Structure formats: C-alpha cells, structure tokens
Amino acid sequence: MLRHLRDHGTCSRADVAEATGLHRATVSSLMTELMSLGLVREAGTSSAGAIGRPRRDVALDGSHVGALGLEINVDYVAAHGSDLGGRVLFSCREGFDAAGAGLSACLTELVRVARRAAGEMGSLAGVVVAVPGLVSDGVVTFAPNLGWRQVPLADLLRAELGVTVGVGNDANLAALAEYACGVAAGTPDMVYLTGEVGVGGGIIVDGRLLRGADGFSGETGHLLVDPGGARCGCGRTGCWETKVGLAALGPAGATSPGPDARVNSIASAAAAGDARTLDALAEVGRWLGLGGSILVNLFNPRAIVVGGYFARLAERLIPPAQAELERRVVAGGRCKIMASELGFEAASRGAAGTVVDRVLDDPLILESNGTRPAG
C-alpha cells in the first residue's frame, strides 16, 4: 500500500484496494494503522463522478521519517538524508583521510556526521553506510583501500547511534541510486562503475541488484586485465583499478586533498593542453573500455553508467572508452557508456534510499526505533 501511494501519489482507499487486490475493509484498517505511524495522511476529498459521495483521498506522508545514508571512502566522508517521500533534509561531503586515520578515528567521524545530520533532520528511522569493500551481514570483511578486515561496522555504529544500522558496498548502493533516479533510471539491465582511488561496480539485471551467493558481486576493480601490471591494494597484480583508478592519472591528481580537488587539478591541466595529462586520460579511457567490454560480454547491459571522477572527466574518457568497448564486444555496440549526474553523493543517496525501502517493506520498524510523529 505504501509503495502504491509512493508511485502513484494521492488516491482513494478504493483505488488502493483495486490496485493491490486487498479487501476495502482491510485497506481501511491498514490505513488507520499507517496514519497512526505518521506514514499516511488524509488529502481532502474528490469526486468519483457525477453520481455518488465524494471520496476521501489519502497520500504518503512520512515527513518525520529521517532516512540517512553515509559513505566513508579513502579520502572523504559523505552523507545524504531524506524523508520517506524523498525530500532532501541533509547533504554534506567532507575531506577526510580515512585510509590513513585508522578504524577508531573513522568510527568517530562517522558518528559525528550522523549526529550532525540527526540534529538537522529531527529523527532517524535508520542509517545505512556505504563502504568501498566486501560487506556481509553488517561486517566489512575486506576493504583493501581502507585497510579494514572483519570490521563489525553495523554493530559498532548501532551502539553509538541507538538506531538500526546497515552496511553495504558503495558501488552497489550507487547503482541502486542510478536505477532509481539517475541518468539511466529505470533501465532494467545496466552496470554502474564508480571511479575513485578504487573502482567498484554495481550490476542491475532485470531491474534487480545482482548480489551473488555471498553478496560480493560487483568487484569489477579486481578483474585481472594485465598479469604483468602494477600491484593493487588488494595484494594482487594487474587489477583493473590499477589501470583506471584515480591514481592511474599520476602526479596531476596525486597531491591535492579530496576527490574534487584532485579531479579539478586534472581537468585544469587537460584544459590547458598539458600533453602528459591528455595522454594519461586517453590511456585510462582505453583501459576503461577494455574492462567495460568484459562486463558487456558477461552481462549484456544496455548502459554502463560511470560515476565518481569518471563522470567529471567524461568528455575526455568516454570517447576512447566507447571506441575500445565497441571494438572488443562480441555482440556489437548497443551498450552505451554514460556519465552519471549524481556526482560523488551517489552511494550515500543510494544508502538513504535503502533505509526508505526498509520502512516501506516493514513500517513497524519505526516503533522499534522510536520514530513516531509528534502529538
């Protein structure tokens, strides 16, 4: 019922009953319960036609339901908060040396940002944290670029924040955001690639995120593309992210803190015609297309959406990447590489969306978190 109201807007109880197949009395009873949780509100009356009583319409509310997505990455922390209807309540991204700070300092920073967000949002129905690594049941089993192994992140943050906390892979969460509201929104078969220090992927197949047997799918950055190549942060050699990660662009982006400053430095050098930077971008573009062709041959997506620094430098990277992809894909050039428009907040936005989905799946979790409307 909640999903119907979210997708179709204001409608009558009779409309909801017809769409869901539920009995009208059941719909009426459930609506009363959802109103008590502050998730549905009366939305006035409207005429059902020339004959008959005016109908009482209802609409999704949930303005008091705060859904918070956090992301911790190698050199920044980001947050995106929304209410149940998707209205943005909080957004920030701050430079932070997570790779060098150590686990304790990272936890302190995440708690600080979450509490700041809660102060502005009013209440939190839940938190989901995006991490660049392998995640299983709230535990970060391995995040090579952060130096984390077997970190029970969900439990650690839940003890500090007192609300339900989930943890997910950053690229998977970004892929969900792209599918929901990105440049290729609604495309049932697509791949999302995040370009930062590391490279991750989220794979959407038939409208659903492909998670794999253990939830570890999408580790695209560790595809072996060059057996004689450089050593990767995971400990292996020749991984795709050693060819297309931000560090592959060399000194032009290596000295400035934070992803934005790094990418701006590279973009400025390219705009000024710096030959080394232009050559490096063309080379990264070719490797991007090569790795992308492996994914296209495996999953046959209609679109590859590139985010992070890939999107910021799309004008330089996508042409050589698309050309290389089309040269190597067996099935031809029906898959297009597209630049994300969500910026570096894609993962935190997807994380907040996951909290919203959990509330829609089980509204009663609001009672366990103490998230009820005032009055």
TrEMBL record:
Protein name: ROK family protein
Organism encoding this protein: Herbidospora galbida
Family stated for the protein in its record: Belongs to the ROK (NagC/XylR) family.
Gene Ontology MF terms: DNA binding
Ranges for domain HTH iclR-type: 2-42
Source organism superkingdom: Bacteria
Pfam families: HTH_IclR, ROK
Annotated InterPro entries: ATPase_NBD (IPR043129), ROK (IPR000600), Tscrpt_reg_IclR_N (IPR005471), WH-like_DNA-bd_sf (IPR036388), WH_DNA-bd_sf (IPR036390)
SUPFAM superfamilies: Actin-like ATPase domain, Winged helix' DNA-binding domain
GO biological process: one example: regulation of DNA-templated transcription
Signal sequence interval, chain numbering: none
